[in-house]
UniProtKB/TrEMBL annotation, chain A:
CDD domains: PBP2_NikA_DppA_OppA_like_17. GO terms for biological process: peptide transport. Residues 96-448 form the Solute-binding protein family domain. It comes from Streptomyces spongiae. This is ABC transporter substrate-binding protein. Belongs to the bacterial solute-binding protein 5 family. It comes from the Bacteria. Pfam families: SBP_bac_5.
From TrEMBL, chain B:
This is ABC transporter permease. Keywords: Cell membrane, Membrane, Transmembrane, Transmembrane helix, Transport. One of its GO terms (cellular component) is plasma membrane. Residues 95-300 form the ABC transmembrane type-1 domain. Pfam families: BPD_transp_1, BPD_transp_1_N. Its main location: membrane. Belongs to the binding-protein-dependent transport system permease family.
Length: 527, 318
């Protein structure tokens, strides 16, 4: 349970590919036609303006039977958060920070103290005014050990909860323990939604926030409903209400969409066969979250043979990411070239070593691992894992690496395989700002450091980048950090994939990227 | 007769006791420490120690077992590790929903299959028999989730007559569940009926060839009377056991079908608690399933005895 740390991963953990049961309508419909004759999937959902009003029905996988509306919790019901709450800052489609409840923010000269000017005239759903006290309380709630928030590991080394200050009702001052020029990006995380002062005990049930919708009902792992909040500071949302239904099984979710019982499948990356069935239906179609999924083959750097950096380099040089994109994604994605920072991120660098099986062979020979044979674990947890593993296996053969692809049970994949087996297939949602990404997944000792990689020089480089207040120079340092990870790290990143989202043909204004979902503008046409 | 009854009930109780031991061992003897298994690798030592205390893992196994069985006899199955609610109440809410499906399934399957089985038996080797036998063979061979998926395709996606999935939680009312009950019940009934049809057909053929049926015919009774008054009671006897076994099978068969329809029943609860490693819930469900199994078999034995004079009177002749 403690591994469940981002929506993408939670989803199917609960859904579990119940082996047989996950065999859905898609299999029956496309089983005999094969992929060759398949139609091309649509690139975007229906365009145009929605009608005012209406109720959107969303099918979602449950986070857990004990899920809660507390945004800071590891078991938060993800879909509700963006509808009910706001953060201080959020991320724009091009990766830049934009105001949410904070109108502006600036550091002192050394990026040691950050001052946030908060929006005035914002009210919570219960009618109270939003002030700096709520912002302070939200940060303290995340840092509170009792909350056990996943984001605490990122924020606790930086913030002393007792030193947060509120000079006036609409100013928040955050003194940091160590300088950090990218600090506000860490507050865009979905654990950082703002809750009212003193609400720790009740927020999991009441869901009182400042967001465009207010809670009408909520049952853990059951149905729930939110209705438009007329006094929302950005104005009233297009929809009258959203009903959230919990459907654990992925094929049951697709069936509900095909039968017209729901309008949108959340946290569901459809396999190509199901996506085609949905795209061909009269009621529903496919929308994409471009490069929404970051696929990784993490090598445990504490396990042989991956303790040797030359073996890790060989594993990366040995395969062709373009081949993996073509085979596993049928082209619906972008080659990653082992850089975990997605191409849409402003900090992304495009430089990378070229595919070079001969050099891989040479490195392996020098390391004493000529003719290396490794096990690569995969599961039915996500539809792309196994095709990705097989494409890697096929491509790496040219460097003399024999990869044995092994399938593990989906329900215990993230407890028994992830961070336990030396080589496996996994994914994350993209949308983490670069510092959050490196701190959470690559820095020594982080609980989500899935390659168990620990390099003092890399940590020092991150510290230097954080301290650097010159934007251009800092971007260069994060570029160096990417080169460092590509060169020495344990994560093989073959690709970023589009997430295939099942959506009703009546839905208009669907916009989702990273962890941002536009609840304000989404609506229905002719419902 | 009384001693037979007593022996049979004692055997049932013994089976249940054995089942409870096996369930307890199977769940508690998972490889590795159960607390770490539940909490995962990242758990803090404090959390593991707290859970060990909560599960009573620091006490000897036999003591934990007697506590558990003692509690279960009073309807106390402990508290769920995930929701923190009482397991008994949770399981019974889901069990009630499953009973709705099971009841309708049994009604469909038993009446339908006996009628079809008798027809096939009476028209042995003619076209009604061939048709019924072939269809029931297909029903037997195709797994229930495929049947369920085909039904969804036909009757909720192509023809929007029934909902494809249930969108309500475990506390849904019967009125909310009723429209969604028919497809899962039909899927289960198709698979279940197949076995009963085959059995009923064989029995009817046997009985129709027996001397007392021939006698009845020679007396000049109509076919309808021969079948309903003389053949059917005899033919139903062996079928009873097959029905009982199939009703017991439902306890497990619903798991997959409920998942396809997102139906908030015992099967869905079992799946999610296995995935969450919610041990007290898994134990309770396993025990409830074995109770259903044993009860069905006991009921079948007792009914057989009631219908079969040989068994009924054995005590007296000895």
């Amino acid at each position: 349970m403690s591994d469940i740390h981002h929506p993408g991963r939670r989803s199917v953990l609960a859904a579990g590919a119940a082996g047989a049961a996950s065999l859905g309508a898609s299999w029956l419909l496309t089983g005999c036609t094969g992929a060759a004759s398949a139609p091309v999937l649509p690139v975007a959902a229906q365009q145009g303006a929605p009608d005012r009003g209406g109720t959107l029905r969303i099918a979602r996988p449950p986070a857990s039977d004990a899920e809660t509306l507390d945004p800071a919790s590891a078991l938060s019901a993800y879909e509700y958060l963006g509808a009910l709450y706001n953060r201080l800052v959020r991320v724009d489609k091009d990766g830049t920070l934009v105001p949410d409840l904070a109108e502006s923010w600036e550091p002192d000269g050394k990026a040691r103290t950050w001052t946030f000017r908060l929006r005035k005239g914002v009210t919570f759903h219960d009618g109270r005014d939003f002030t700096a006290a709520d912002a302070v309380y939200t940060l303290r709630h995340i840092l509170d050990k009792k909350t056990a928030s996943p984001q605490a590991a990122v924020l606790a080394p930086l913030i002393d909860p007792d030193r947060l200050r509120t000079p006036d009702d609409h100013t928040l001052v955050v003194p940091l323990r160590t300088p950090h020029a990218e600090f506000p990006t860490l507050l865009t995380h979905y654990n950082c939604y703002v809750v009212p002062d003193g609400s720790a005990r009740s927020i999991g049930r009441t869901g009182i926030g400042t967001g465009p919708f207010k809670l009408e009902s909520f049952a853990p792992a059951g149905p729930g409903r939110v209705t438009a909040f007329a006094d929302h500071w950005q104005g009233r949302p297009v929809l009258d209400a959203i009903t959230f239904y919990t459907v654990a099984d992925m094929s049951a979710r697709s069936n509900a969409l095909l039968a017209g019982q729901v309008d949108l499948l959340s946290q569901t990356n459809l396999d190509f066969a199901t996506a085609r069935v949905i795209a061909a239906s009269d009621r529903a179609t496919i929308a994409r979250v471009e490069n929404g999924q970051w696929y990784v083959l993490p090598m445990l750097t504490t396990e042989k043979p991956f303790t040797d950096v030359r073996v890790r380099q060989a594993m990366k040089l040995a395969y062709d990411p373009e081949h993996v994109v073509k085979v596993a994604l049928q082209g619906a994605g972008t080659a990653g070239w082992d850089n975990p920072v997605p191409p849409s991120d402003p900090a992304h660098i495009s430089a990378h070593p070229e595919h070079d099986p001969e050099k891989a062979r040479y490195l392996l020979k020098k390391a004493g691992y000529e003719g290396l044979a490794v096990d690569l674990y995969t599961s039915s947890y996500d539809p792309v894992f196994t095709p990705m593993a097989l494409a890697y296996q096929d491509s790496a053969r040219r460097a003399g690496i024999r990869v044995r692809v092994k399938t593990a049970a989906a329900d215990s994949y993230y407890t028994q395989i992830w961070m336990k087996k030396p080589l496996m297939a996994t994914y994350w949602y993209t949308g983490r700002p670069v510092d959050q990404l490196f701190t959470q997944v690559f820095r020594s000792g982080s609980s989500y450091n899935e390659t168990a990689w620990s390099d003092k020089d890399f940590d020092a480089l991150l510290d230097r980048a954080r301290r650097e207040t010159d934007d251009t120079r800092r971007r260069e340092l994060y570029g160096e950090a990417q080169t460092f990870v590509i060169d020495k790290g344990g994560a093989i990143t073959p690709m970023f994939a589009d997430r295939l989202v099942g959506i009703s043909r009546k839905v208009r204004g669907y916009a989702e990227h990273g962890f941002e979902f536009d609840y304000l503008g989404i609506g229905l046409k002719g419902a | 007769m009384l001693s037979f009854l007593a022996r049979r009930i004692a055997a049932a109780l013994g089976t249940l006791l054995l089942a409870s031991v096996l369930v307890f061992l199977a769940v508690q003897a998972l490889p590795g420490d159960v607390a770490t298994q539940v909490l995962g690798k990242d758990a803090t030592p404090d959390a593991v120690a707290a859970l060990r205390g909560q599960l009573g893992l620091d006490r000897p196994a036999w003591e934990r077992y007697t506590d558990w069985v003692g509690g279960a006899l009073h309807g106390d199955f402990g508290t769920s590790l995930v929701t923190g609610k009482a397991v008994g109440g949770e399981v019974s809410a889901y069990l009630g929903n499953s009973a709705l499906i099971a009841g309708i399934t049994i009604l469909f399957a038993v009446t339908g299959s006996i009628v079809l089985g008798v027809l096939a038996g009476l028209y042995r080797d003619r076209w009604p028999d061939h048709l019924i036998s072939t269809v029931s063979l297909v029903g037997m061979s195709v797994p229930e989730f495929v049947v369920a998926t085909v039904l969804v395709l036909c009757f909720s996606i192509a023809l929007p007559w029934f909902p494809a999935v249930v969108l309500y939680g475990p506390d849904a009312s019967v009125g909310q569940l009723l429209p969604a009950v028919w497809l899962p019940a039909l899927a289960l009934a198709v698979v279940m009926a197949a076995y009963i049809v085959r059995m009923a057909r064989t029995s009817v053929i046997d009985v129709m060839a027996s001397e007392y049926v021939t006698t009845a015919r020679l007396k000049g009774l109509s076919t309808w009377r021969v079948v309903t008054r003389h053949a059917l009671p005899g033919a139903l006897l062996p079928t009873l056991h097959v029905i009982a076994l199939n009703v017991a099978w439902l306890a497990g068969g619903v798991a997959v079908v409920e998942n396809v329809f997102n139906y908030p029943g015992i099967g869905k609860l079992m799946l999610s608690s296995v995935q969450n490693r919610d041990l007290p819930v898994i134990q309770a469900i396993a025990l409830v399933s074995s109770v259903v199994y044993v009860a069905c078999n006991l009921a079948a034995d007792l009914a057989t005895m009631a219908l079969n004079p040989k068994l009924r009177t054995r005590g007296r002749t000895r």
